[in-house]
């Protein structure tokens, strides 16, 4: 935790400096007759953020904040596995959307999570990962008229068939 | 009298078949969301907001408010039967609810919680109906300096009363405000803060992307990491006869707590950014303080269940008051509701009462109906909710992730935002582990687009003189209170240090 605390403060400080720099593309001072410039609000807020990261670092050095006193690691074995399996699963889900469509990616993600992470039965896994995307399809495309990404062109015949049910 | 007429019109609006259906669905979903550990009203409202675009705005907000309401009832179910709060708003309910359940009186605790919630909800609804139009009338004369002063007060409450690490809280607020500034400078129209020159940032960051990232993804991963062990449920046998008997006992021993919770919860809820969690904790404390035998609290006293449960319902209604009348949310959940109102094309603030009476009074009327429905659904289906609590998190979690991704896309229809949501979610997980409060950031991204223009207009009006916030009759006192709240932690730290030095000298 202790190392993570100072590294995070450092990253946030860099982000603040970057946002301050980016804000200066517009005027950050007071323009007579016009009020504060367009960059002033984000510039000074980022400056306050930078000061806060300084205080967080100071508290880290004095060991006053709980994470700066903790000897625990930020992520133990279980935590790391959670991030890799769950976070990685989500990453895969979102990456697959543009290839096999939102509904296809959803089915793959549900299958992966229920079967491999949850170790649920084949019946539950298959019924949920096939039925839910269907329900979502009819809800979004049919009821709400929101079209979700359909992926590459090979999914077209399948969706043409589903659309023929809605319209 | 005029209020009664408007209220009855509102009740009629909420009794329209579509609204009744949405209220029923909302409170049932809310009860479930509130009961599920790791999910609270704010998660539910953030994740489900995108799907409400299907219905007209006044039905949408009635549905979301019903979820909010139901979640306040539902939190108690897991606090009592699992011993872990279903939501942060029900933390105080575990203190006495769990001991009652362990001694075989889970039914008494559940019934007391439901009745106290109902009474808390009813009292706060009446207070709301009386105060809201008055406050809205006063707020009509507010100019930019007054509105900015109120924003300052909302953020100051987080700093002064939030109880989290101060620099981390301020950083979280500023981060939300800067995120809200990304996209275009509204006054000059020039592109602003297009981070890393990625075009996706040109249209700004939608508050929903941050809210779903934080509450749908970040908090879920955090919960998965935290709830490693298996959870045991306490059985609760419910029968009609038992419910009647427990209602009598619960009310006899818990009426004082219920009254304290109802009033205190409502007024704490009104405070910008305070919300139901501090409201319920404070009510528990006060109820214990004024009890005949405070020692009974913590060992299974119905009063210790009634006070926080009445308070969290009262506070949820209370937190809607500044949201509707001033356009400033009283809790993270209402911040998301407010953001929703902007998406629906409404301008939150006092003018809503005159411009959109159907919307406002329909919502107020729905509070009364939701309250009754939540009580009935709760009492009728407690065994079902307890059974559903056994649903493994490995089934619930992927469903929430799927809803988050689909909802995030539906809101803006841009995959860039879905990626951004994942980044926010993972970032939120790490920040949360390191004690950074994230609710202030979500509130700030909603308030940013109101705070910046009001500040700029105020400074323009006063030719750059910042004392405009101190010298105007309404803005002045609000700013001073905000400044006191911001300086409160510093003052406390100095006092502790001085006391420490004195003890050392002695």
Explained architecture:
Chain B: The chain crosses the membrane at residues 12-33, 45-69, 75-95, 107-128, 134-159, 166-184, 204-222, 255-274, 326-347, 359-387, 393-411, 418-434, 474-494. Chain B: Residues 21-443 form the DUF112 domain. The complex is a heterodimer of chains A (167) and B (506). Chain A has a two-stranded antiparallel sheet. Chain A contains six helices and two strands. Chain A is 74% helix and 2% strand. The mean pLDDT of chain A is 90. Chain A has 167 residues and is an all-alpha fold. The radius of gyration of chain A is 24 Å and the shape is flat. Chain B is mostly helical. Chain B has 21 helices and two strands. In chain B, helix 7 (144-161) packs antiparallel against helix 8 (166-181), helix 7 (144-161) packs parallel to helix 21 and helix 8 crosses helix 19 (439-461). Chains A and B meet through helix 1, strand 2, helix 2, helix 4 and helix 5 of A and helix 8, helix 9, helix 17, helix 18 and helix 19 of B.
What tags apply to this protein structure?
heterodimer; A: 167 residues; mainly alpha; two-stranded antiparallel ribbon; 6 helices; 74% helix; 2% strand; B: 506 residues; 75% helix; Tripartite tricarboxylate transporter permease (chain B); DUF112_TM (chain B); transmembrane (chain B); membrane (chain B); transmembrane helix (chain B)
Structural class of chain A, by secondary structure, is: mainly alpha
The helix content of chain B, as a percent range, equals over 70%
The radius of gyration over CA of chain B amounts to 22 Å
| Biggest sheet: strand arrangement of chain B | 1-2
Number of helices of chain A: 6
Mean pLDDT of chain A: 90
Poorly predicted regions of chain B: none
Average pLDDT rating of chain B: 87
Major beta sheet of chain A, specifics?
A: 2 strands, antiparallel
Report, as a whole number of angstroms, the end-to-end distance of chain A: 56 Å
Number of helices of chain B: 21
Major pleated sheet of chain B: 2 strands, antiparallel
Enumerate the strands of the largest sheet of chain A in spatial order, edge to edge or round the barrel: 1-2
Poorly predicted runs of chain A are: none
């Amino acid at each position: 935790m202790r190392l993570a605390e100072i590294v995070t403060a450092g990253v946030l400080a860099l982000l603040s400096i970057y946002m301050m720099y980016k804000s200066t593309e517009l005027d950050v001072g007071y323009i007579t007759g016009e009020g504060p410039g367009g960059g002033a609000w984000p510039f000074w807020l980022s400056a306050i953020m930078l000061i806060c990261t300084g205080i967080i670092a100071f508290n880290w050095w004095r060991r006053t904040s709980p994470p700066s006193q903790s000897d625990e690691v930020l992520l133990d074995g279980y935590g790391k596995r959670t991030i890799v399996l769950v976070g990685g699963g989500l990453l895969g889900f979102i990456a697959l959307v543009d290839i096999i469509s939102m509904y296809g990616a959803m089915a793959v993600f549900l299958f992966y999570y229920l079967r491999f992470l949850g170790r649920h039965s084949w019946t539950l896994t298959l019924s949920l990962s096939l039925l839910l995307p269907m329900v979502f399809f009819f809800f979004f495309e049919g009821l709400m008229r929101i079209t979700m990404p359909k992926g590459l062109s090979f999914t077209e015949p399948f969706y043409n068939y589903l659309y023929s049910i809605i319209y | 009298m005029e209020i009664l007429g408007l209220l009855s019109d509102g009740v009629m609006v909420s009794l329209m078949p579509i609204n009744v259906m949405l209220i029923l669905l909302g409170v049932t979903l809310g009860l479930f969301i509130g009961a599920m550990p790791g999910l609270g009203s704010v998660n539910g409202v953030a994740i489900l907001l995108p799907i409400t675009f299907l219905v007209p705005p006044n039905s949408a907000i009635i549905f979301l408010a019903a979820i909010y309401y139901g979640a306040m009832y539902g939190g108690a179910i897991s606090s009592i039967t699992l011993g872990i709060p279903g939501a942060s708003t029900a933390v105080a309910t575990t203190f006495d609810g769990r001991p009652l359940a362990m001694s075989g009186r889970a039914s008494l605790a559940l019934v007391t919680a439901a009745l106290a919630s109902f009474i808390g909800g009813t009292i706060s609804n009446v207070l709301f109906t009386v105060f809201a139009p008055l406050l809205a009338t006063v707020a009509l004369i507010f100019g930019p300096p007054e509105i900015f002063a109120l924003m300052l007060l909302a953020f100051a409450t987080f700093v002064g009363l939030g109880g989290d690490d101060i620099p981390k809280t301020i950083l979280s607020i500023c981060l939300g405000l800067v995120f809200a500034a990304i996209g275009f400078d509204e006054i000059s129209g020039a592109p602003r803060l297009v981070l890393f020159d990625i075009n996706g940032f040109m249209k700004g960051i939608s508050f929903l992307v941050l809210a779903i990232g934080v509450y749908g993804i970040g908090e879920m991963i955090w919960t998965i990491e935290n709830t490693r062990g298996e959870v045991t449920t306490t059985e609760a046998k419910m029968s009609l006869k038992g419910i009647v008997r427990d209602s009598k006992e619960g009310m006899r021993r818990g009426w004082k707590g219920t009254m304290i919770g109802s009033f205190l919860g409502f007024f704490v809820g009104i405070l910008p950014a305070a919300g139901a969690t501090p409201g319920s904790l404070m009510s528990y404390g006060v109820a214990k303080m004024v009890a005949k035998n405070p020692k009974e609290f913590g060992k299974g006293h119905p009063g210790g269940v009634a006070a926080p449960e009445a308070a969290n319902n009262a506070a949820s209604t209370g937190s809607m008051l500044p949201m509707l009348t001033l356009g400033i949310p009283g809790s993270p959940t209402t911040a998301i509701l407010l953001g929703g109102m902007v998406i629906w094309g409404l301008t939150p603030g006092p003018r809503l009462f005159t411009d959109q009476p159907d919307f406002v009074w329909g919502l107020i009327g729905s509070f009364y109906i939701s309250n009754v429905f939540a009580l009935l659904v709760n009492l009728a289906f407690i065994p079902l909710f307890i059974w559903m609590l056994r649903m493994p998190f490995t089934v619930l979690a992927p469903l929430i992730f799927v809803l988050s991704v689909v909802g995030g896309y539906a809101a803006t229809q841009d995959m860039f935002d879905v990626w951004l949501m994942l980044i926010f979610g993972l970032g939120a997980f790490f920040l949360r582990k390191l004690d950074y409060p994230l609710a202030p950031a979500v509130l700030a991204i909603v308030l940013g687009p109101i705070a910046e223009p009001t500040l700029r207009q105020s400074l323009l009006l006063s030719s750059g003189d910042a004392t405009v916030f101190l010298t105007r009759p309404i803005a002045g006192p609000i700013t001073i209170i905000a400044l006191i709240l911001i300086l409160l932690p510093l003052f406390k730290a100095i006092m502790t240090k001085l006391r420490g030095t004195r003890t050392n000298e002695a």
